Amino acid sequence: MKLSKTYRAMLVSALVASSFSAAAATQLEVSSWKGGASEIANFPEIIKMFEEKYPDIEVKLTYISRPDTTTVMPARLQGGNPPDVMMVDREFMHMWAEEGQLMDLRGEPWVEKMQPALLPEMHHGEGLYMMMLELSGIGMFANMDLLAEAGLTEIPRNIDDLTKACVKLVDKGITPMLMPASSGWTPGLYTIAIGLAGDGLPDHSRPEKFNTGELNFAEDEAFIRAVTATKQMADAGCFDAKMNAGIDPWTVGIAGFQSGRAAMLPQGLWNIGPFLKDGLPENFSFGPLPALSGDKGIALDLLGPAWAIPKDSKQVDAAKKWINFWSDDEILNSFLVPESAVTTIIGGRSGVPENATSYVAAREEGYAVFTPEGLWHANVPIEAMNSMTSYMLDLSQDPVDILKRWDDVRDKENAAK
Amino acid sequence: MRGLDRRYWFVLPALAIYLVFMIYPLFSGVSLSFTTFSGVGEAKWTGLDNYQTIFTDSVYLKILSNTLIYSAFVVVFQNGIGLAIASMLNGLPKVRSLFRTALLVPSMVSLVIAGYVWQYLYSPLGGGLNEALAALGLKSVQQIWLGDPSIALIAVAAVHVWMYIGYSAAIFLAGYAGISSELQDAARMDGATRWKRFRFIEFPLLAPALTVNITLATINSLKSFEFPYIMTGGGPDGATMTLGLKVIKLLFNEYKFGLAAALSVVLIVMVASIGLVQNAYLRRREDRI
Amino acid sequence: MSSEGLQTQSSGEISVSKRTKTKNKQRWVDRFQVLFLSVLAILILLPIFYMISMSFRTRREIMMDPLGLPSSLLIENYQKVAEAMNYGTSIFNTIFITASVIVLVSILSSLAAYPLARIRHKLSTWLYILLTLGLVIPPFAGLTPLYLFMRDLGLLNSYLGLIIAYTTLNLPLGVFFYTSFMKSVPIELEEAARLDGASYLKTYWYVVLPLLRPITGTLGLFITLTVWNDIVYPLLFVTDDSKYTIMVAVVRFLGTYSIDPTQLFPAAVLASAPLLILFMLLQKQVVSGITAGAVK
């Protein structure tokens, strides 16, 4: 008796569940690594507005973190059962477009709204495969109160000024900066940024030349100086190189800067929001990274997440409406503000707070390079990071040998192709 | 010749599920190891290229030695300390289950969180461990735990031991429960010292528990990737890169599914052979005792 | 041995005082051991303490002094997080799936272990090796093929798919545990049952299975931890939020490039708490099973 009751209840609930999914109008499955609990990024509000505008479409957000996307999505793509719209970034886009898994979006109404400098980054070969939502970036955070103690009023813009500032800070008993290197992320990207930028306005053809092998890292004067800069910083007392090899950039490094244990930290723009919310450090600003020379510094742009449509999407029309909806400045801005990120559309409003104005100014004047992640083979930045940690552990190494490691990995990958 | 023992039928349900849902997908996975598969699309057949890469690139030699050191450390310390704890608890029935529960708590915590807390304990910027050493007047022993390539691997393995010590202790305790208490009492009556009782009565009788513990610890530590993944990402400069982590990195960061499959095969073969030899030895040892 | 015992008894006063002395000494040794174990346990639990302590603190406090104590108990962290996690549903799913997997694995693998432990024959050795080989297979080795297979069977987005996947994953462990355990159990009981005319199946059900209770507790614990802490299978096989397990809900609080401890930690504590409570409640059963089990 009892058993049959339970059984009936199960049957009924199963029926209800199946009829429920059948009754829904058009269900649009959107996969994303934004909009999760930790980076809500105004998603609930944006979805609500979208559903109000298109009452026959119901959005179903599937949150999958960026790392999990790597294993989950290939399986779904391969299985012909992908979400209708998926979040990608340049790395994923190149990989999956190459395999013919993504839909070519040329001719979509939003394309002409995108900033011309960014359009090439959304292409793979001839095709246009994604709509980039944001630009984030890596620059230098500074605790302005600590800088003021050493008589400094702004973030140094080049290595010379930085090392001089370090000497002043050390005199006051302040640790000038952290260069968290346990995974090599910070020194790796820093070196890539100033090495690619060189002197003066950055030449945007360089990243591709290093990719193809037309230029070699170990023979490039700017890159040799970029690696050497780490030693100059360490020699000037900017940081304890060996100790920083044991600091994780995401946890201990950030806490170290926020708690005032060090005056400066190269990190990402996305930290501004949390830092402001904590009120820690009380008085901080975010500027471009100190470059090899000049008085502008260099901003390292991270190409942000983007929307793409898998070729097996079951709701192509609704998917296109969804993407187009995001190209509205009003909507995009409401996403960019919680992200503290830079807009990708022409004349759009960014979500970057005021204490990052010097960073925004530098990139608007052209003193910015894109991270090569997604352009270079994935192993090259990884080797750059590892080799820079190795350099920090033993600064007596020849910078040319460090850079040869980058060249070797690139050559190996190119040969494999 | 008589027919097969009828009890063999009992293996069938488990075997069927196992073959269908584990071995079959595994073999499809293994076939990827002869290709340059990148997750989606066509897999280009490249024969033994992936294996050649693994056996000729010196990076993999370093990874192999890291894995073996890591595993040896975990097996010795997790089981050594677990056994010591279990043998003490065996004589303390009043507090036994309290301590057993307490020691199992770390294994119930999400690894991500454990890794996060350990970052701060190991931190060279006023981290818990270094501060504690300073308070004990042992400032000279302070280390950059996760940054010094010569100790980072051990520091990571220590967290592995921390997390699973309760497992080993629980299994040894289950073994102790199987030793007849008359035998232990008799030995005590004879005035055998604590050490002698352990060495000549308890330890031999714990042989099955030891087999289970050593086998599981060896297998789990050899294929472990979680701890270095969360605490160091394999750094500094590859000092904590293990075979399991390299498979993950090949998948997640380098998108080389084919090479990852090949490395998985190497890992499986290695762990299986070590496991088999070890298990055969331990079983024979059990029979001898 | 018994003759020696007699000797000790007959050797009069000296041995009695010696015995009280050893008893006293034993008491001190016990006390010292309890003290030592307590210190060790506190050290081992310290990181757990920090985890709970951090879950009550503001981000600002954590950044200022990561290992400090909470200034006040911030329940707010928990309220926000529990809601965002869809806590009740996720916990229910996890418990439902875990329980099903434990039942399936213990039946399937004990059934298989019975012949594997008892038959001394080449085939049984080979089957044992084949079945336990699964222990060494790293979790990612067959992921994509498994997904395609589940899709073809129509098992995606269902509890059944997850239950099958986890059952398969844990079968080798079950076979390994039961076989090695059963080898240490005397065969006499089974032989007696057989002599009474019981079929193999009846012998298994009435004699073998009850003997396996203690090790089933340990196996259940291992399985619970695997299912509870996994995120890959639910993320891959399930797209419906209402079918996710608890760890998937926790991982949502991990940012792409950042960690917010005020969300991650309460979420993690909430996820682990039922596990701990469950374990403490069942601990009595497991322990009494071990001591009462017919291991002797």
Automatic annotation (TrEMBL), chain A:
Coiled coil: none annotated. The keyword Membrane applies. Transmembrane segments: none annotated. GO terms for cellular component: periplasmic space. It comes from the Bacteria. Belongs to the bacterial solute-binding protein 1 family. This is Extracellular solute-binding protein.
TrEMBL record, chain C:
GO terms for cellular component: plasma membrane. It is found in: Cell membrane. One of its GO terms (biological process) is transmembrane transport. Its main location: membrane. The keyword DNA repair does not apply. It holds the Pfam family BPD_transp_1. SUPFAM superfamilies: MetI-like. Residues 91-282 form the ABC transmembrane type-1 domain. Keywords: Cell membrane, Membrane, Transmembrane, Transmembrane helix, Transport. Belongs to the binding-protein-dependent transport system permease family. PANTHER family: ABC TRANSPORTER PERMEASE PROTEIN MG189-RELATED, ABC TRANSPORTER PERMEASE PROTEIN MG189-RELATED-RELATED. This is Carbohydrate ABC transporter permease.
